[in-house]
Amino acid sequence: TTKKNVLVFRPLPEDQLARLQAAHHVTVADPRREPEAFAAALRTANGLIGSSHTVDAALLDAAPRLEVISSVSVGVDNYPLAELNKRGIVLCHTPDVLTETVADTVFAILMATQRRVVELASLVREGRWTKNIGEELFGTDVHGKTLGILGFGRIGQAVARRAALGFGMPVLYHARRSVDLAAQAPELQGRATHTPLDELLARSDIVLAMLPLTDATRGMIDAAFFARMKPGASFINGGRGATVNEEALLHALDHGTLRAAGLDVFAKEPLPADSPLRTHPRVTPLPHIGSATHETRHAMAELATTNLLQVLAGEKPTAPYDTAAA
Ligand code: 8YV
Fold it and tell me: Where's the D-isomer specific 2-hydroxyacid dehydrogenase catalytic domain (predicted)?
């Protein structure tokens, strides 16, 4: 097939870069560090591989030959979906290969938040473990507690499996439509229940947001949301930071009844140094590491490379994103 021009704007593993270079002309340019090289390559690029960098209509205008964007991510909120659809530019992403890893991360954050792991590890590291840990430093049990999940896609269901099957936790979930558990997740039948949001918030000991960032979910987790949560409950976010009103979260922690928060994602990333969420004693913050394991990031890069090669060869990609449905 004809060699085309591919612009890679995030680091790819050597073996995946080699796959691309064997088939096409490849330029690697980080738009943040090499804006001129990036802009020059964009002008002739037929395909893009990237991830969290925001793509907008102006960037698409500067890429007149673009046929496909292959994202190394499952989330696609940093892409102009309607614009891509209008221009007939194919968008691909990397679902499924990261599901279990992100679910592991989310459960790790949940456990760390409820048992105060980061705070107590710091106590040891800073030489402040001078006597038996007293009640003021106790955490709260996870097993058997009720977990409420917002967003019940592949990752939400994977977290539910860990909670229900591993930790005996009743799972409530809220999503735009109920999930056919018999077909999609038979092991969760009788263990996960589609629940109205208010009831989920009133009953859950832990509320987990696994929501994509859309016009509907942006800022939806606000003061009224936290006020409706069960007193003493905790909040975990493993989806997208901008679904949360962070001022309302801090207010719920300091003046409401929110026990604690575990956050892998933030409205602005990296988290600004002056954000109170960085140092709040009842916040367990992580730097968006949901899919960040050697194995999974390689699998994501491999799938993103395969998607791109397929589209440029005129084939249907393994994992297209339906921009028309957005
Ligand atoms: C990031 C994620 O994309 O897949 C997603 O949507 O949030 C993460 O995997 C990743 O950090 C960027 O490669």
Answer: 6-318
Q: Is the ipTM of this complex over 0.90?
A: yes
What pLDDT, in 10s, does the model give residues 190-236?
999 999 999 999 999 999 999 999 999 999 999 999 999 999 999 99
Distance 72 CA to ligand 1 centre (A): 7
Condensed to tens digits (0 to 9), the pLDDT of residues 116-156 reads 999 999 999 999 999 999 999 999 999 999 999 999 999 99
Q: Which residues contact 142 (CB under 8 A, 6 or more apart)?
A: 110, 111, 114, 115, 167, 169, 206
Task: Give the contacts of 152 (CB within 8 A, at least 6 positions apart).
Answer: 160, 173, 174, 175, 179, 192, 194, 210
Q: Greatest CA span in the chain, whole angstroms? A: 70
| DSSP reduced 3-state for 144 | coil
Report CA(75)–ligand 1 centroid distance (Å).
7
The number of the ligand 1 atom at minimal distance from the alpha carbon of 72 is 13
